[in-house]
Amino acid sequence: MAADGLYKRDLLRFPDPFAVVTVDGEQTHTTSVIKKTVNPYWNESFEVRVKESSIIAVQIFDQKKFKKKDQGFLGVINLRVGDALDLSLGGDEMLTRDLKKSADNIVVHGKLIVNLSTSIHTPARTAAQSSAAGQSSLGTSTPPQGSALNSMASLSNGLGSSANPRDATAPPAGAPSNNSPAGSSTNVNGQAYSSFEDHLGRLPTGWERRTDNLGRTYY
To answer: For tag attachment on the chain, is the N or C end more exposed, with fewer CB atoms within 10 Å?
Structure first.
């Protein structure tokens, strides 16, 4: 996963971009921060569980401005898994998507490049297992190794040349939704967070993380 041509908001400094990958507003992974660049490349691996209707949201932020009002927002893409891959057949797709604005209409530039690949393994199943066949596993990874639980989809941090969701309706990732069951919490890299904190610590006074009915997180 990589970005190309991010917007440089400050005249005298480049952004320190990082990406937040969220699936259906529940599974959240955050990349490392790449210092002083508008063309970051994240060589990292993530694995999450998906189904055909799952929405992958990738937001990019400037780490130095993440605690400010606009969170250093640099763009977002929202991708439906079934529009990019056939999980029953497997495959490998390198996708390039234009970064979109947030609901705040902040100017963004650039593209996000991400590689989606699947590795399918279908052992003998019981009737109960067969009923769950629509559930797959999606991960950001280097090229897949060919092993999986039921069917496996891998989202790769691969780049052919030169990654908590936000577009017109999609904000930062990783929060429990008003539509989520009572008592639920966001799990980021194995750690649970309340609606008043995220992977960078407690939110400013008066802030709270929520998720809309499409699984997209906002503040």
So the answer is: C
